[in-house]
Sequence to fold (292 residues):
Amino acid sequence: LPFDQRDGYIWMNGRIVAWADAKLHVLSHGLHYASCVFEGERAYEGRIFKSREHSERFRASAQVLDFELPYSVAELDAAKQLVVDKNNFQNCYVRPVAWRGSEMMAVAAQNSTINVAIAAWDWPSMFDMETKMKGIRLDIADYRRPDPQTAPCHAKAAGLYMICTISKHRAERRGYADAMMLDWQGRVAECTGANLFFTQKGALHTPIADCFLNGITRQTVIELAKRRGLEVVERRIMPDELSGFDECFVCGTGAEVTPVSEIGPYRFTPGVISRALIEDYSLEVRPRQQAA
Ligand code: PMP
Fold:
């Protein structure tokens, strides 16, 4: 079913509306000029994992794009939970989005209203279980993550996803699940919607998140790895170093922890570290587990 024709409820500008009524006008600044930020979250057993961290990032992303969300972190957390509850979801994906409205239709739009909506839908996993166990295959994207002086690279801003969609489409056309993107200096950065980790001699290696999203899942995985006593090395990684790694996995709210078997010409074997972190992450996100 197309996303505009589903049943259920969406929170829009402070109230719950029927799914089909959550509309915006075609002359919305957010659509034309990408004055739009969003979040991607997951609820497990009815509770949103790291809701506060996502609400904080949502507000911070808006601030980077020069607008203020008219809701506090606590109000956003409550609204998101309301959407999950109202739609009777236990496990679901949650999508807050904020954009400048229709009052002004030019680059400058200082006085436009800031709209906020929150939807939730069923999205069991970005990759099926079989793919997850075998590992996904990654293309290498042509586009690079822009440097911090070229784009607001730490915001989860809709405009930054243009290069992600193009790269993911090209990867899929070539038979890959996703694409690894390099950064503006040619270093390994991340995928089109997930962060990257590698293993070498029992340690985790991951690129420094200095020009791409420092994912909440990435931060969780680092914490889980340290809890297991694994060494975590955040460093600059060049693509030709990929031949020296044993395992590779991607992680993100959508992808959770998913092993990678190939990146372009490089091969990896999903192994004990990836499996351990898949397990740790799946326990960490369960609210009952957290309460225990
Ligand atoms: N990088 C990009 C470009 C993303 O879109 C995402 C998903 N939000 C991530 C990384 C992972 O972030 P998180 O773990 O916070 O979902």
